[in-house]
Design goal:
heterodimer; A: 2 domains; 11 strands; B: six-stranded mixed β-sheet; five-stranded mixed β-sheet; 19% strand
Chain lengths: 427, 415
C-alpha cells in the first residue's frame, strides 16, 4: 500500500478543442439541402427534417404546434394507428416538435431500416390528411394537458415572461387561452401545411453511420417532392415588450414561488454573443456559478437556480429561473440583482476565470461528442447562417476573454432597469 | 457488443473498464450499494441527504466541484431505493483529477455543520418542488405506503417526513458514512478514452490505500404477500381526476423480470401501446396514460397512472384498464405485438449504449446484480420471452388481490 500518497490535485492539463467534423452537404433533385455528419461506432442514424414552420409563422395560436402534432395522425396511405404501429415495429423513435421559429421531426433508428423510415417520413411530412376525428380528440387531450400545466408556477411564470418580453400580439409572446383549443380546423391545418412544409422551407440533417447508399435512398424517397409554389408574404409582426417590468401572478395554495428575471437581447449573429455566453456561465450557467453558489449552496433557498441565453430568429433572450420557498422570494430577487451589480463593478478574479475557461472548454467537448450531440450543435449554428467557425471563435473567446470585457458586457446587456421580473406564487 | 474488463482491488473495490477511443472524454461512475431501503424508519431520507453532502468537501478537498470544473469536468448524482450513484465526465487528459476527487470523498468526508444546515434546506426545497408544488405530486408519496406495509420501499427516497431531514445531526451523518461508504461497498466503472493499464494503475494509486470497512449488514423485513385488494380515495383540487394502480412483482433478478418488462411495453410502450390505443385513442377515457416497472432489486412494482378525460366515471376507467390487461391473453392478437416490442427494446438498448455515461452506469448496476454481462445479454433475455411466459405472468401478477389503487378525485367544478 502506498500510504505516502500526497492527496493533492494532480497536474491540470489544458483542454484542447477537438476538430469538429464538418458536415458534407449536397442537394436532392428538388434542391432540398442535405447535411450529413459521419460519427459514432454503432450502426444507427439520427435523421432530422426541419422546416421554417414554427410559431412565428402562425396566424392563430396553436396552429404551428397542432399542425406538427397532426402530421403523424393519418396520411394518404396510412391511418394514424398504422403509422404508429409501423414506427414501433421497426424500433423507430419519432420526436415531433414545433419551436418558436422552426418545426419538424427527428427519427432515431437502426440503419437497416432506413428505407422503411424514409417511406414513413414521406407520408408523415408530405401526405398528411389531418382527419377531423383525430384532430378533435387531440385538442381535447391537449386542453387537459394545458390545464394541468397551468397549475404549475414555473409554466405560468415562463408564459408570462415571454408575453412581457415579446408582446401580447406576437407569436413569440402570446399566451394560450382555453378557447384557443376550439379554433383549429382541418382546413386551417391543410393551409398551414401547404405553405410551410415545403421543399423550399426544408433541410435534412443526418448523423450517425453514413452508408454508400444513404444519399441515393434519400433522393429516391424525397427528391421528387414538388413545390406547391405558394408565395408567402413576409411576416409583419413586430416584437414589442411591455412597459410594465414587474408582474406578479397570485397562485393560491403554492409553497414555492417561481421567479423569472431577464430580457430580450442579441442573438448568435451578433459578435458580442460569444462573450455573453461566458458571462452567462459565470452568472448562472453551471453548478459552480455565482447564483448557484449564493442562492443554493450558501443560503439553501432553492433546489436549483440557473441562467440561460437563447437565440431566436428575431432576437435573443436571457432568463434567470428558480423556484424558492415563498418566504425567501424577495431575498432571492435582491441577491440576483446584487450578483448582477457585482459583475458590473468588480472584475472577476483570475482563479474564477480559470475555472470558467476550463469548465466551458470541457463543455465544448461534450457538445461534439457523438452523433446526436453533433447534429444538434450543427443545427443550432446552421439555422443562423453560421458554420463551425462560430464554435472555433467561441473556443477562442473562452480562452481569451478578460475581466474588463465581462464588466462591459454586464453593463451593456444586464442593465437592471431593463430587466423584466416575473413572480408566480401565493401572496 | 460492449467489451469490458474487470478487476478487484485488495480492499474490495470492483472496477470495470470499457474502452472507446472515438471520444475525447471519460465517464467515471461510482455506485455505492446503499439506498433508502437501508435507512432507519425513524430517519428516512438520510441516504439522499447524504448524496447532497458528498459535494460539500472531503478530508483533503474543501470543495468537490471547483477542481473538477477547473479540469473541464461535469458531474451529478442520484439516489434511489437501492443505490446511490455518482457520475462525472471529464476530458481524458485530466482523468487523474477524477480519481483524486472520488477517492478522497470515499476516504473521508468533511463532516461540516454548515454544509449539513444548508443541504437540509436545499432538500426541503427539493421536496416542495417535486411533491408539494406540482398537481398530483403527492400521489407517489401515498402509493408506496399503500402497496408496502413492512418493507422499506414503503417510503420514498426523499424521506417520508421532512421532520426526519430536519432532525438529522452530524453524528447520524458520520455513522452513516462509515457504515456504508467504503471500497468494499462500491463499484467503479470507467468508460471512454481510457485503457485497462491506466485504469488499473490509477485505481491502485488513489483507491488502493483506502481500507476496507465493516458494512452495516442488510436485514430487511420481507413484504408479506398481499391478500386483498387495496383502494384509497383522495380528493384534491386538481384539474382532472387521476387513477393510479400498482401490482407487486418479483425482484430484479427473478426469472419473470423480462416478461413483466415486455408486458408493460405491450401495454404502454410508445404511441401504439395497448392502453394508449384503446383507452386514449379509441374510447377517449384518458388524456394520458403510462405504465412502467420499478426495476427495484427487492420485489418491486408495476405502476400504472392515467389522467381521466372530463366526465369519465372512475370506476368505468378502472374496469377498462383491467379489461385491456386481460385482453393480452388473446394469443392471435398478440404475436405481432410481441415482435414489435422486442424490436423496440433492441433499438432502445443500442441507443442507450451510444452514451459513455449510460454505459458506465449500466456496467456498475449490472455488476451490483452480479452479472455485468447483462449489458450485452439483456436483448436476448427479452427476446426469449414467449407467449406462454406472458400468460403465466399475467395470471400470476395481474390479480385483484395483488393490486392497490388510488382514486385521485378532482373536486374542481368545471363549466
Amino acid at each position: 500500500m502506498m500510504n505516502n500518497l500526497q492527496r493533492i490535485q494532480p497536474p491540470v492539463y489544458p483542454v484542447e478543442q477537438v476538430v469538429i467534423p464538418e458536415a458534407k452537404s449536397f442537394r436532392l433533385n428538388n434542391s432540398v439541402p442535405v447535411y450529413m455528419i459521419e460519427s459514432g461506432t454503432e450502426d444507427i442514424m439520427r435523421l432530422e427534417f426541419t422546416f421554417r414552420a414554427g410559431q412565428v409563422k402562425e396566424y392563430l395560436p396553436l396552429l404551428a404546434s397542432t399542425c406538427n402534432m397532426m402530421l403523424s395522425e393519418g396520411s394518404q396511405n396510412y391511418s394514424s394507428e398504422e403509422l404508429n404501429k409501423s414506427l414501433d415495429f421497426y424500433g423507430v423513435f419519432l420526436n415531433q416538435s414545433a419551436e418558436k421559429d422552426s418545426a419538424g421531426i427527428v427519427l432515431f433508428f437502426l440503419n437497416k431500416h432506413i428505407e422503411k423510415v424514409l417511406e414513413l417520413s414521406r407520408e408523415i411530412l408530405f401526405r398528411p390528411v389531418f382527419p377531423e376525428p383525430e384532430l378533435n380528440s387531440l385538442m381535447k387531450k391537449r386542453l387537459r394537458w394545458y390545464m394541468v400545466n397551468r397549475e404549475k408556477v414555473q409554466n405560468l411564470a415562463i408564459d408570462q415572461f415571454f408575453e412581457s418580453l415579446f408582446g401580447k400580439n406576437h407569436p413569440y409572446g402570446y399566451q394560450i387561452l382555453e378557447k384557443d383549443f376550439e379554433n383549429i380546423t382541418p382546413s386551417l391545418l391543410t393551409d398551414f401545411h401547404s405553405k410551410y412544409y415545403t421543399p423550399e422551407n426544408m433541410a435534412v440533417i443526418i448523423s450517425g453511420k453514413i452508408h454508400n447508399k444513404t444519399a441515393e435512398f434519400l433522393n429516391s424517397y424525397l427528391g421528387n417532392i414538388g413545390s406547391k409554389e405558394i408565395n408567402n408574404e413576409a411576416s409583419v409582426n413586430f416584437i414589442k415588450g411591455d412597459k410594465l417590468k414587474k408582474v406578479h401572478i397570485n397562485k393560491t395554495g403554492t409553497v414555492q414561488t417561481a421567479i423569472r428575471i431577464g430580457s430580450a437581447t442579441i442573438n448568435k449573429q451578433h459578435p458580442d454573443y460569444l462573450g455573453l455566453k461566458v458571462l452567462n456561465s459565470i452568472l448562472g450557467g453551471y453548478f459552480g456559478s455565482r447564483l448557484m453558489k449564493n442562492i443554493r449552496e450558501e443560503k439553501g433557498y432553492t433546489y436549483g437556480i440557473s441562467s440561460s441565453i437563447s437565440s431566436l430568429d428575431l432576437a435573443g433572450y436571457k432568463v434567470i429561473s428558480t423556484e424558492v420557498g415563498r418566504q425567501n422570494c424577495q431575498k432571492t430577487i435582491d441577491e440576483i440583482y446584487r450578483e448582477i451589480m457585482l459583475l458590473q463593478n468588480v472584475p472577476v478574479k483570475e482563479e474564477e476565470m480559470a475555472v470558467i475557461r476550463n469548465y466551458m472548454s470541457g463543455e465544448m467537448l461534450r457538445m461534439f461528442d457523438g452523433p446526436f450531440a453533433l447534429a444538434e450543435s450543427f443545427k443550432s449554428t446552421w439555422e443562423f447562417g453560421l458554420d463551425n467557425n462560430y464554435y472555433y471563435r467561441l473556443a477562442e473567446k473562452i480562452r481569451t476573454i478578460e475581466p474588463d470585457e465581462i464588466i462591459e458586457l454586464t453593463k451593456t446587456y444586464y442593465n437592471i432597469d431593463d430587466l423584466y421580473e416575473i413572480t408566480v406564487g401565493s401572496e | 457488443m460492449i467489451n469490458y474488463k474487470r478487476f478487484t482491488l485488495e480492499n474490495g473495490l470492483r472496477v470495470l473498464i470499457h474502452e472507446d477511443k472515438s471520444t475525447p472524454l471519460i465517464a467515471m461512475n461510482i455506485l455505492y450499494d446503499v439506498g433508502s431501503r437501508d435507512e432507519d424508519p425513524g430517519m428516512t431520507g438520510l441516504a439522499h441527504l447524504f448524496e447532497h453532502l458528498m459535494f460539500g468537501g472531503s478530508l483533503n478537498v474543501p470543495d468537490y466541484d471547483t477542481p473538477l470544473q477547473l479540469v473541464g469536468g461535469e458531474n451529478n448524482a442520484f439516489t434511489n431505493n437501492d443505490i446511490t450513484n455518482y457520475y462525472l465526465t471529464i476530458p481524458s487528459v485530466n482523468i487523474e483529477t477524477g480519481f483524486w476527487l472520488e477517492s478522497d470523498r470515499m476516504l473521508e468526508l468533511d463532516f461540516s455543520q454548515k454544509n449539513l444546515d444548508t443541504q437540509r434546506n436545499v432538500v426541503i426545497e427539493e421536496f416542495k418542488q417535486r411533491y408539494l408544488n406540482q398537481p398530483y405530486g403527492d400521489a407517489i408519496l401515498k402509493l408506496r405506503p399503500l402497496a408496502y406495509k413492512v418493507h422499506p420501499y414503503r417510503w420514498p427516497t426523499i424521506g417520508m417526513d421532512m421532520d426526519h431531514i430536519k432532525n438529522t445531526d452530524i453524528e447520524h451523518v458520520r455513522s452513516f458514512f462509515f457504515s456504508h461508504y467504503a471500497p468494499n461497498n462500491a463499484i467503479l466503472a470507467l468508460t471512454g478514452n481510457i485503457g485497462y493499464d491506466l485504469a488499473l494503475k490509477l485505481s491502485q494509486k488513489w483507491f488502493g490505500p483506502i481500507e476496507e470497512r465493516a458494512i452495516q449488514s442488510r436485514k430487511l423485513p420481507a413484504e408479506p404477500e398481499q391478500t386483498q385488494e387495496r383502494v384509497l380515495t383522495i380528493e384534491q383540487d386538481v384539474p382532472s381526476t387521476a387513477l393510479y394502480k400498482v401490482w407487486h412483482i418479483g425482484p430484479r433478478k427473478s426469472k419473470d423480470f423480462y416478461t413483466l418488462d415486455l408486458i408493460t411495453d405491450l401495454l404502454a410502450g410508445g404511441e401504439s401501446g395497448r392502453l394508449h390505443t384503446k383507452l386514449v385513442r379509441d374510447k377517449k377515457l384518458f388524456s394520458e396514460i403510462n405504465a412502467y416497472l420499478t426495476a427495484d432489486i427487492d420485489p418491486g412494482l408495476i405502476i400504472f397512472q392515467g389522467k381521466l378525460m372530463k366526465g369519465v366515471d372512475i370506476q368505468h376507467a378502472n374496469d377498462s384498464v383491467n379489461e385491456v390487461i386481460k385482453g393480452l391473453q388473446n394469443e392471435s392478437e398478440i404475436k405481432d405485438e410481441m415482435e414489435k416490442v422486442k424490436n423496440k427494446f433492441e433499438s432502445s438498448t443500442v441507443f442507450s449504449n451510444t452514451s459513455i455515461l449510460n454505459k458506465a452506469a449500466n456496467l456498475s448496476f449490472f455488476e451490483l446484480l452480479g452479472n455485468p454481462g447483462l449489458i450485452n445479454n439483456e436483448v436476448e433475455a427479452y427476446r426469449n420471452v414467449s407467449y406462454e411466459m406472458v400468460i403465466e405472468a399475467l395470471r400470476k401478477y395481474f390479480i385483484p388481490s395483488n393490486c392497490s389503487t388510488i382514486n385521485y378525485i378532482s373536486t374542481r367544478k368545471e363549466k
